[in-house]
Amino acid sequence: MAVLTARDEKRGLEALESLKYSGLSDYLIFHRFDVADPESIAALTDFVKKQFGKLDFLVNNAGTLGATFSIAPGTECTIARGSSESGKTLIDL
């Protein structure tokens, strides 16, 4: 299962709807998420904990600096902006 996120809920749900025709929608759910909003980070963190118990992988394509959150004790995910050349894109779990 994958969680599709977007800052704009309407656009996120439209993207999810468009994926129905690709056959992937059975494996996707949508949740609103803005990496620059602490309340949104907390809401997604709570959702993932309740729904799945853990986070296996996170892809941030927002191009926004700085979000750090914990999904389970002893795990922390840090999202940082950077280019592949600089090696500054971090995902630490």
Automatic annotation (TrEMBL):
<keyword id="KW-0521">NADP</keyword>
<dbReference type="GO" id="GO:0016020">
    <property type="term" value="C:membrane"/>
</dbReference>
<dbReference type="GO" id="GO:0016491">
    <property type="term" value="F:oxidoreductase activity"/>
</dbReference>
<comment type="similarity">
    <text>Belongs to the short-chain dehydrogenases/reductases (SDR) family.</text>
</comment>
<protein>
    <submittedName>
        <fullName>Uncharacterized protein</fullName>
    </submittedName>
</protein>
<dbReference type="InterPro" id="IPR036291">
    <property type="entry name" value="NAD(P)-bd_dom_sf"/>
</dbReference>
<keyword id="KW-0560">Oxidoreductase</keyword>
<dbReference type="InterPro" id="IPR002347">
    <property type="entry name" value="SDR_fam"/>
</dbReference>
<dbReference type="Pfam" id="PF00106">
    <property type="entry name" value="adh_short"/>
</dbReference>
